[in-house]
Amino acid sequence: MNRATNPNFLDISDVTVAFGRSRVPVLNGIDLKVARGEYISVIGHSGCGKSTLLNVVAGLLEASGGGVVLDGKEISGPGPDRAVVFQNHSLLPWLTCYENVKLAVDQTLSKTMSRAERHEWTLENLALVRMTHAKDKRPGEISGGMKQRIGIARALSMKPKVLLLDEPFGALDALTRAHLQDQVMQIHADLGTTVMMITHDVDEAVLLSDRIVMLTNGPNARIGEILEVDLPRPRDRLALVADPRFIAARAAVLEFLHHRHTAPGLAAA
Amino acid sequence: MNAAIQPPVAAPPATVTTAGPNPMPALTLGARIRPYAERVLPPVLVVLALVLMWEVAASSPNATLPPPSKVWTDARDLITDPFFDRGGLDKGLFWHLLASLQRVAVGFTLSAVAGIALGLLVGTSKLAMRGLDPIFQVLRTVPPLAWLPLSLAAFREAQPSAIFVIFITSIWPIIINTAVGVRNVPQDYRNVAAVIRLRGPAYFARILLPAAAPYIFTGLRIGVGLSWLAIIAAEMLIGGVGIGFFIWDAWNSSNLSDIIVALVYVGLVGFALDRLMALVGHLVTRGTANT
Fold first, then answer.
1. pLDDT per residue over A185-224, tens digit each?
2. What is the largest CA-CA distance in chain B?
3. Nearest-by-Cβ selection for B195 from A58, A138, A140
4. Chain A hits for B197, Cβ within 8 Å
5. What is the pTM of this model?
6. What string of DSSP letters covers B149-208?
7. Is the pLDDT of residue B9 over 80?
8. CB A209 within 8 A of CB A40
9. Any CB–CB contact under 8 A between A58 and chain B?
10. Quick one: which of A183, A137, A192 has its CA closest to B286?
11. CA of B186, closest CA in chain A: separation in Å?
């Protein structure tokens, strides 16, 4: 998008994460600059530490070295400016869909919005993910895809500076996943939100991202390569199937994942 | 043109409303009763079979227990009129049960409040858990009646002693389940709370308590069952009005039929208490507790 405005909107510099007394860090020296409004994906084999990287940016996990600066401010601890959509939706089962979103709105925007405005804003976000019809249902009564949409609505309702998606569609069936990907693309186009998404799905990464960050196998994972996805937006999944640029990008990621960095256990470091 | 088209447009709603009920014909009486009958009939048949076996087994001349027919003739007024009151201890079963339930209500309320409070403390503070948990683990194995002499010595009165026995019997499962519930708040919910910066009392009220509620109600359900067990036993020893003493009194006057009737009532009330607690749990946790 308008990357020229602030190419260092989210600045991850030299982030290293080591657990316990282990000598070998999970992540080693991750350097990544994300522009405002950019959609960036982090891909890699399972266990490579992609989720760890997201948790560091979210503030849920403290880095052993290096730091993260968002919009000129160094992050410390979790906060609503870095809203997370968790893989397993993490909705509170005792609250309705409306109440789940409203809790986040009340908690994060009570200083800037009146009670009535917060109610309106909650409904607006439910409408954004087209879940108004189920607003009074509890998470146990709706499907997995719907839960994930509520999770997205909750994250967006906090007006985050960056939206963190932790394999948000991983637990969904293929059709629901495609539907949700389209919705997320639409939301990204409409709101211009900066997005960082963790995924292990190559097609998903190519379809949605401006850039794809490929991690080498963990432990001691680094950024192996960053691929610019040079596809015009809005993107249409059907038209892209035959697009040579899509095929080339897809091939480049697959080549990285399956040739140069095969699944752990097959390759030695 | 318009005028010609309108009548047919207006007509369909009228036909739809009259045709509406027809596609869904009223179920026949048999079809409507069937689901209920399928659930009610088996237990009724089993009870009838058991009563019949009991009748046969207890009808021999050297049988030590009365058969159901004798129970009915002996204790007919007790079964049919639970509300009589001839003064002193000569009351209907309703009054005895009511006295016992009142003791349970007081003792169990105290243990619920103290148990949940202690459970929250032990669940949230590692120090409190290390200090208190070993004591809980030892004390919870002490049988209810073993507390009675000590509590009689301390309170010097029957009523508070009985209530204390209920309290001390039912508090352990409440403490332990509450603590487990608090410790098992899923990491997902903690992460959500962290991202929206829900802390302190708000975290406690919006996340911790609702997440632990299903566990707490499991504890309360076990607790209310234990209370009912304990009060019957305690009342046998302390006397006064109460279903436990009624049973003991009937034994002393060799009135076995009265004992059998009382046992049926005790069982039914215990069952009702358990279901009631499950229902309250279901309502309070908005369906996230198992019933």
1. 999 998 899 999 999 899 999 999 999 999 998 788 889 8
2. 100
3. A58
4. 78-80, 107-108
5. 0.79
6. HHHHHHH-SHHHHHHHHHHHHHHHHHHHHHHHHHHT--HHHHHHHHHTT--HHHHIIIII
7. no
8. yes
9. yes
10. A137
11. 9
